[in-house]
Amino acid sequence: MNQPTVSYHLKRLHRAGLVGRRTENTWCYYSLCTDLRSWVNDEIDLLLKVEPTA
Fold first, then answer.
1. Three-class secondary structure assignment of the chain
2. Is 90 exceeded by the pLDDT of residue 2?
3. pLDDT band at 35, cuts 50/70/90?
4. Taking Cα atoms as reference points, which of 7, 2, 52, 48 lies closest to residue 27?
5. How far is CA 27 from CA 21, 22, 32, 45, 47, in A?
């Protein structure tokens, strides 16, 4: 993959709360979040709140 594509996807993962990010000068360093249980629970709660359309 090229660098802009990787950056785009890392940015999306960061917004979703799946990866952490720290910035040093012009570089961004990403790390996997270890608290995935709360993220999964939040996503399931959102899915359960959606009412089916008839």
1. CCHHHHHHHHHHHHHCCCEEEEEECCEEEEEECCCHHHHHHHHHHHHHHCCCCC
2. yes
3. confident
4. 7
5. 10, 8, 17, 35, 35
